[in-house]
Amino acid sequence: MNPLKPLLPLLCFGLACLPSPVLAADEPARLHDLFHREWEYRLKENPMVATSVGRHEYDDRLPSVSTEDLARQAADGKAFLAELAAIDRSKLSSEDAVSYDIFHNQLADGIASWELGEDQMPINADSGFHSEFSRLPEVVPLATVKDYENYISRLRAWPKYVDQQIDQMRLGLKRGFTVPRAVLNGYEGTITAHIVDAPQKSVFWKPFDHFPATIPEGERERLRRDGRQAVTEAAVPGYRRFLHFYRKEYLPGSRTTIAAADLPNGAAFYAHQIHRFTTLELSPDEIHKIGLAEVERISKEMDAVMKQSGFKGDHAAFVQFLRTDPKFYAKTPQELLERSAWVAKTIDGKLPSLFKTLPRLPYTVQPVPDSIAPKYTSGRYVEAPQGSTQPGIYWVNIYKVETRPLYNVEALTLHEAVPGHHLQISLSHELADLPDFRRYSYISAFGEGWGLYSEWLGLEAGIYTNPYSNFGRLSYEMWRACRLVVDTGMHAKGWTRQQALDYLGSHTALPLHEVETEVDRYISWPGQALAYKLGELKIKELRRRSEQALGPRFDLRDFHDKVLGSGSVPLDVLEKNINAWIAGRQKGEAVGR
Description:
24 helices
């Protein structure tokens, strides 16, 4: 899973909607002109998004999340939507029609998100706007004096941004739209980590420790002085202000319920989250039933693999054995990182047999930052800022290494690094023929479905070399199936947090610490966890259909290229793409992405 996408606004409107200069008769040109103008809007309204995609006109500022600006942006979004509706979709090519639909969904989703007040909950159980900001030194350019001045300006803008976020959270408190109290134990550590007594101890000081050679010696002392002042007078006070609000107002005032259904307009909110993250029209009951069926199927596979291991005992005893035997755990954090890197390089060597098209961008392996690691998931993928010299990053959580089993490393690496998120996201960014809003969009059902499919793909690639790692894979798949049951159970069917903990703990081999962090994540982030299994089921279904229809003409590498060749798309669009590809192959058409 990519950690930054969910914390950025799904849609960043902005600027005033200007009339298109393109003649009304030219529908494709009108459409792409609209795409371009709204994209420019989006970047100006959210400067951090602009930086991340390699646009640097706004590198000296942060976005505004004031109530007035959010309302203005929603109004602008409605104007963009009206302009889109005036374009005759029937006169567009099939590819432009897909872009039209995705664009419409993004605009409508952004408006619905504002109407539901989602801006009033800018944190979840493991991270938030403040932890995203703490990565500023890693995601901005720092090669010129101007880059450093921009970085300092952003640090100085931090207190105002914090105040705006606090204002939004206060609105949420007033109407009971908050993160549940049950998942906030220990959360303040993600804030206190950045309240330091000397600027040199701050993560924001790192750029001033070692300047690149491109920064003239005569400028360095001035930049250090200004940076010291910005860290001391803006960055640290901003975090201190947020901590005070969190302790005095937010934590005491946070809701005692856990269900999305218990929020204001909760049923509509949860339905919106389901559609956002799955792109499907499914009810909570339908998803719950799919989850129960998958749990039953995977349980049988897990029992078969347990027997292959030669273990004498029942399923519960085997899981206890996996959770407690020291041989399944690294002795040091470095050992876990090295094992993860070794597995990653092993998978790299398998990629040419699975794909014809590979991304140019490399990736690296790093630990999850200490400030968020205690409540963070086992690993995630972090995108590289476009146009930077940074690689993609596969984050591995080394906090409490004794709770991070080695038998999960293969599945985790396949999902977060390759052929999962790094490969899929990097290829999407390289699709220069797509409109920018599609190149940089992340649709969870597609991306997370691909990540889970990638774990399964490791079987064909020979990555799981013993029954324990294969059981770890199945435990990860079971984990995603359980999410369908647990998420809908808690948010729509009245389950308690303890019921969810017991269900996930008894059906997977996840360490109990991870069971708790995961359940808390589902509570604070309704619907997101549904994307993985539902997306994977659709990709597997389309692969089976392709294999059956094409027989000996089926080429796995071509299939994978076709799945990834249009970027991140809704599941119904993916199905149309694969059906068209099958029909073309049956007619003997040349293979193409």
